[in-house]
Known about the structure:
With about 850 residues, the protein is an alpha+beta fold.
Amino acid sequence: MSGERYNPRESEPKWQKVWDEARTFVTANDDPREPYYVLEMFPYPSGRIHMGHVRNYAMGDVVARYQRARGKNVLHPMGWDAFGLPAENAAIERKTHPGTWTYQNIESMKAQLQSMGLSIDWTREIATCDPSYYQHQQSMFIDMMQAGLVTRKSSKVNWDPVDMTVLANEQVIEGKGWRSGAPVEQRELTQWFFKISDFAEELLEALDTLTEWPEKVRTMQRNWIGRSEGLRLLFELVPSAKTDTRSIEVFTTRPDTIFGASFVGLSPDHPLATALATNNVALAEFIAECHRHGTATETLEKAEKQGFDTGLRVKHPVIEAETLPVYVANFILMDYGTGAIFGCPAHDQRDLELARKYGLPVKPVVLPPGADPASFAIGSEAYVDSGNIFNSGFLDGLSIGEAKTAIADFFGARTVDGRPQGQVEVNYRLRDWGISRQRYWGCPIPVIHCEVCGTLPVPKKDLPVRLPEDVTFDRPGNALEHHPTWKHVACPQCGSPARRETDTMDTFVDSSWYYTRFTAPHAKTPTIREVADRWLPVDQYIGGIEHAILHLLYSRFFTRAMKVTGHVGVDEPFKGLFTQGMVTHETYRSAAGTWVPPTEVIVETEGESRSARHITSGEPVTIGSVEKMSKSKKNVVDPDEIVASYGADTARWFMLSDSPPERDVQWTEAGVEGASRFQQRVWRLVCDVVSMARTTPGADSADAANALALGKLSHRAVAGVAQDIEGLRFNRAVAQIYELTHGLAKVRDGGGGPQTLAALRDGVCKLVQLIAPMMPHLAESCWAELGQSGLVADAPWPEVDPKMLVDDEVTLPIQINGKRRSEVTVAKGLSSGEVEALVLALDDIQKALDGKTPKKIVVVQDRIVNVVI
RNA sequence: GCGGGCGUGGUGGAACUGGUAGACACAAGGGACUUAAAAUCCCUCGCCGCAUGGCGUACGGGUUCGAUUCCCGUCGCCCGCACCA
């Protein structure tokens, strides 16, 4: 056996079969051990896994296998985020049913994942497109409807003209659809919404409890929720023949600047603006112009502030006899606050731009510290920082904060139209989550529209509302809508002819609760409450940063909604969150400028310089920048090919080495080779140590000391690797394993007495256990070679003897004036006085002192000595 | 524009709460073994200098016995948000 190279192609499928047959990774819900739930974001079944998946699942698998070794009852499931548009596109292209395409993809991707040797409980596999999954989603939708968490309203929506569907705000990136990239249009549609905004305050506050989340993600969610405190304020209209409306309600976060108000602004979509436009052609044209610009040309022209003077005037609320003009302005949003503002040009940049354009007064009311009240004036930039209020009657001299309180009290006590003129209010940027999608391949919204009874939920006994199989995709839009019979149904209440809802749910709904379904994937109800509560929240969730807002915020909302409807007892779905970096690769271009895949390139190194040429034609190829692996730049490396040539363990090991997991990692040929060499080195070490055990060691005077040193090395590695895995610092765990391997190999080459050889064997066994979470197949082969019983996958994590972690001696560096000049080895814990005496006696130090007395000697126990001359 | 993060050898990166900067790996160079190659093993590897030594963690300052780490300023890169009143 020894002397042979390790052959992953043979070994890996063998161990996968062994684990499978032994049901090693099948998790029981009634296992009494402490539960630990580790989850990687489940994939969309596109058909092939990519290196990003390999990295993600390798990390999760390390955590899962480590926690198993630690004696936890580990839940590590896998499923498929299987609804979504690509299946429909494929259906159009290939004339297959989206389901057929999806399930074929699932099958091939599952085989790929299985070839990675992941410790996954495949008995819990779920696919969101399966009625056995989505029927529960429909059932919970009905529960949430009845709990008042769902609404249906007509609203302006983001319409993706390419995908022909509605997008949520979160799915619009820089004015373009997140999937299609097409400029988004505004349309008015009746939509289903989850009332996520009801939870805005709670979702915001609870972020503080998510201490195991990256700060970055929490900040992003905080900004997204966008809480702002302000005042709702009524402006009385000066009576006019143009309207019967008597007041305009605005929202402001700067009521302290009310004395500087010079206009009131309305959104082009404000009801008053709309009403005025019916008798005013110019205004109607202005509003239409605003709509035309809308979101489409957002970046181009948004700098330009434009307004339209309605001719109406409002009474200034604090300055007697003064009135202000009412403008319709293009930059005011209807769906934030009240859709109306008051403009204080001196202290708001947008208001200032409008004021300058139309010659409105600019009166400063906040005085910057140190500025002269008589001469302070606003130029082209509004003053938005702190200062004291002036030019403001009874507010003069107050700070901004004090003035806000004072003015809120003032308006709170006055009434307009029988209402308080001002009311403190908190606003959020977060809007309700629109979930209607005009698509076939999604979870049908279980609702029936009856002309007599209105909109009704489908009775639960009639669930699931299944997608019809016989659909065609020969015209754009919603195939459910086009289906000849599917939508016609009898009203469940009165029996008269009614119509099914043909919208399906946003696929983010599917992924908002899959982690819960994994806890009881075959239950007849959406969840089994006690089981879910035992597993949740997920201890460690791992995935891409691109889901920082969408998926993670929706899931946090959905968990709360499931709590309200009694399906779970927890608030937060994910206790620990880790966002891993991307996998990148060099790009290559031919002389003609076309991208060339790495498989067709040979890279040559000559000294410092690298050059590349095409593998068959020999033509030179330009080496380009390092980019995220993408089909468009052809810089992808196929995991299948890597597994076939180097084995899964090598791919996994490489993905975990070197780069910190939260950062991008560059896939390189050399790096893979290195990983593969290490695999062979470990195997050789194990084989050598096994054969050494058959020889009789000679006597050795240093035997006990060498054995102790080796023992310390091994124990230290075990403790260090454990710490690094728990902190998800896989690159450092890998470095420590390398160090241990070097140490063991040195002893193997040097030999030693019986105690040393015993320590060597023990160290090698520990090494095998340390690599087991990362290179599980190799570890099993080594474990067997070492003659250990059972599977290393079932072996408990090696015990660390705390005594082996401490040294009784330490080497202290000695600095002179902060520069390292010497060192001294002393007993651990030696007092400062004793160290000082020892140091001063040293030749090096005496020489440096040159007869002088040091000014000061700093001794940090067991750390460092600094002699100041 | 606003918010957040980062900047360490040829490269990826280590360095616990301020205490020997460059662990570990990749690349490179040299050597051993070999008929040869592959594989493997050993050595060198921040910069300058023959050397005692000096300089080095983007740059400029500061605090400290001591700074990659803390503070201020400058430059550069990356990410998120972007008319939210």
